[in-house]
Amino acid sequence: NKILDAEGQVTVLLQLKLQQRHTREDLIRQGIMPPLKSPAAFHEQRRSLERAKTEDYLKRKIRNRPARSELVRMHILEETCAEASLQVKQIMLKRARLADDLNDKLSQRPGPMELIQKNIIPVPSSIRQVLIGTVIQHIHTH
């Protein structure tokens, strides 16, 4: 009974896999299977040519890749003389410092009212008078 159940599950699974498999045209389009009208040797030769082109391309890219010093100059790599185990901590410390600096700068930047008073943010004069009057009233009440 258990064997029949297992066989039934395998049959259902196989049917599902057969329904989901790629069509012959998909396999031909992807270069996995040779076209019906062309000889298999031609298909194999074409695949090896594609593989050789890819290999040449990758070798050329590796040969022309920039030196480490160039990557450091372009800020792609960090210039560090720390051990690999300390580099992670060094990067985390640098990020924490940058976050602190950013928070300091954000806390010191002027607010919208100050920008309006200094004519940095353009506002129609009628609205400007109302805003400045509101700020003055707020200052006198506090």
Automatic annotation (TrEMBL):
It is found in: Nucleus. RPEL repeats lie at residues 56-81, 100-125. InterPro entries: Myocardin-like (IPR043451), RPEL_repeat (IPR004018). The keyword ATP-binding does not apply. Keywords: Actin-binding, Nucleus, Repeat. The keyword Cytoplasm does not apply. One of its GO terms (biological process) is positive regulation of transcription by RNA polymerase II. Transmembrane segments: none annotated. PROSITE patterns: RPEL. Pfam families: RPEL. SMART domains: RPEL. GO terms for molecular function: actin binding; protein phosphatase inhibitor activity; transcription coactivator activity. One of its GO terms (cellular component) is nucleus. Binds PPP1CA and actin. Belongs to the phosphatase and actin regulator family. This is Phosphatase and actin regulator.
